[in-house]
Amino acid sequence: MIRYVARRTIAALATLLVVSIVVFVAGRLAGDPRSHLLGDDATPDQYAALGQKLGLDQPLYVQYFKYLGLLVRGDFGDSISQHRPTLELIGQRMPATLELALVAFLFATVLGLALGVFAAARRGRITDKIIQFVGLTGQALPSFWLGIMLIFLFAVHLRWLPASGMRHWDSIILPAVALGWYFLASFLGLMRSSMLDVLDAEYITMAKSRGLSPLSITWKHAARNALLAPLTFVGVTLGTLITGSLVIETVFAWPGLGKLSIDAVLAADYPLLQGCVIVFTALYMGAALVVDLLYVLVDPRVRLFDAGKEGV
Question: What are phi and psi of 141, to 5 degrees?
Fold first, then answer.
């Protein structure tokens, strides 16, 4: 067990190292921050002085190793555009992103799993076809386009919900729906497929022969056993929702890490952009690591299979 955890932890740290290299290079390719800070009227001497202050006059590998050393010590540097510690800015925006991801997660899992059970219990009927169509649209429609359509319908036309920002409790409804719709469709499809397999099992036939009500058979016996397959997808969904909120936060002007990342790209703010991506990656890898450990606790065969591969 300890070796398994150690291997997974080392793999996560190696992934973070690779991501730090990629984001460092990508940040440098995004543009020169001096053009944003100094403007077009700056003299070459001013450019050179600011470049020396920011460390841009040194070779890229020197800049990277300095950045990595600070990163290991928990120092993400200062934002070039906002002149504040990067970690402070990320800490201020983190709660908004986590709140949006959590609401989208609950929306996708609860409604998706319920609709999947409902569709399987009425397979072949018009209700089943309508629910399957909902799942198809969820997997086919881009989240940014869905977000724009939701704004047009519920904010502009009907005026039921706010179009952007984070002012009242109802501000989160539209972005959470737009962010969670794809995962709702995925949960729906997985739960329906799993339910159909369970409903054809022999013990369900025996339950019907004993005179149990259809409601009891569907929810008490079939749904509980059908949950095993979709739950494996649930484990990584929250991490994906956190890291995938960038586009939705931009569409709805949601003040989270995604919006902060876009602002950092537009301002060529290297430290802020690098900090956001590293935090996003750490959150995702942390969620994946927790899921791996839970799999081992729930099903020890995962650990045995992993050990067997080492012996081959």
Answer: -85, 130
Q: What is the pTM (predicted TM-score) of this model?
A: 0.77
Question: If you write DSSP's letter for every residue of 160-198 in order, what string do you get?
Answer: -S-SSSS-SGGGGHHHHHHHHHHHHHHHHHHHHHHHHHH
In the chain, how many domains are there? 2
Residue at 122: amino acid letter: R
Mean pLDDT, rounded, of the chain:
80
**One domain for residues 283 and 217:** no
Nearest CA to 257 among 267, 274, 245, 269? Answer: 245
Under 8 Å between Cβ of 266 and 163: no
pLDDT at 148 over 50: yes
> Around Cβ 13, how many Cβ atoms within 10 Å?
10
Of 34, 82, 38, the residue nearest 54 (C-alpha): 34
Q: Does 169 lie in the same domain as 148? A: yes
